[in-house]
Amino acid sequence: MAIAAPTKKRATKPRYLQLADELRDAVMRGDFPDGFPTEQVLTDRYHVSRFTIREALRTLMGEGLITRRRGSGTTIMASAQRGGALHQPMSNVGELLQYARDTRFEFERTHDDFGMPPAIEEAIGLEQPGRWLRFHGIRHDADGKPIAQTHAFIHDRLEHIVDDIRPENGTIFSQIENLAGIRIASVTQDIQACAADTELAETLEIEPGDPVLRIIRCYLDAAGQTYEVSASYHPGARFAYAMHHEVGR
């Protein structure tokens, strides 16, 4: 699965996706205690067409936040039905950056570790020579709950800039862009469900054996070389991965 990198001429996000973002935030804040607004109310409130409203609602349906039934209108899915999860859309690099802004990541450099676990190398089929310098840390949501344990591996050709990478300065991949002048050409993802071991369970505040979602991302430059690999483990009950795809009409 590839995520296209942003370009200097990237078009503005379609209005229906902007509206979906606004409505998603409103749902998660609990702004609709009396039920989800009708299409007519949304049309009047946001000054957009019915088509835009319906496309935004279709996006939220795909994420499992709402359900729609003819004659019954739109219903917000109960938190229990959503598993109490953070529904995070991450279909492009911009949404990865938004995810980083909406959460807090505390990480540190492991100076004496220059290896990547064989399981990760095997999962992504990595055949690139060189050492990998490791960062690791925990990402928390707005309520302070751990939603990811992340290990980031930086290729040793960038060893000269790793000491300048700081948790407070944003995502590691964006800092690499700024510090090394590397532009992201593509991002690949490998997503797999697995069970938490004892150490991971303690970190994520879940029980050993509970389901977690492992997401491995490879960040590639224009030459097709991988310069960063990240492996994040999310608690299954508190995280839902959402995607949207634009389909030609």
Which characteristics define this entry?
2 domains, Chorismate lyase, alpha+beta, 7-stranded antiparallel beta sheet, Arc Repressor Mutant, subunit A, two-stranded antiparallel ribbon, 11 strands, globular, 249 residues
What's the gist of this structure?
The protein has seven helices and eleven strands.
Instruction: Estimate what percentage of residues fall within beta strands.
Output: 25-35%
Gap from first CA to last CA: 23 Å
CATH architecture heading of the largest domain: 3-Layer(aba) Sandwich
Instruction: Please give the largest β-sheet.
Output: 7 strands, antiparallel
The succession of helices and strands, N to C, reads EHHHEEEHEHEEHEHEEE
Query: What is the structural class?
Result: alpha+beta
Oligomeric state, counting identical vs distinct chains? single chain
Return the CATH class of the largest domain: Alpha Beta
Number of domains: 2
**Residue windows where pLDDT falls under 50 for at least 5 positions:** 4-11, 79-84
Biggest sheet: strand arrangement: 1-8-9-10-7-6-5
